[in-house]
Design a protein that fits this description.
Glutaredoxin, 5 strands, alpha/beta, 18% strand
Amino acid sequence: MKAVYLLAFLAGGALFGSMMGYYGKCSSGACPLTANPFRGAIWGAFIGALLGFSFMQGGSSAVAAESKNLVQINGEDEFNAKIASAKGVAVVDFYADWCPPCKALAPVFAKVADAYAGKASFYKVNVDNNQALSEKFIAEGIPCVVLFKDGKEASRVVGLAGDEKYKKEIDKLLK
């Protein structure tokens, strides 16, 4: 199915580029899209391929739970009940659906959640849907993973990091 989308973007880009080359000729011939229909088709196909790849990477707007060990938090009351008043280690991923680094972190976070099942609790908070929480914990740069020990913030990792970084931070809190 993805190949069909990619081919459609390629063909659409090539068609658009060749039309630009035919109808929008520039006088010097130096314009990449409008010098001639052939050059326009090549550049249009290239741009169409880039758009196609980005479209295929986007996927659904909702971040799916990749692990049964991840719990989605919806609202400050739920956050307080599950994290602020809890004992032990809780790891919270502040993310947004539109954020490419957040999407890249999702499988890493799920892998870490599976590795520490039973030792720590893992949660996800969508900053767009929970602005009060993101402001309270100053989650301005996302992804922002905040680690809690007995309901109090103990550490945080801002930006995309590998699973070893998260494991190291969790291991510190489990000691």
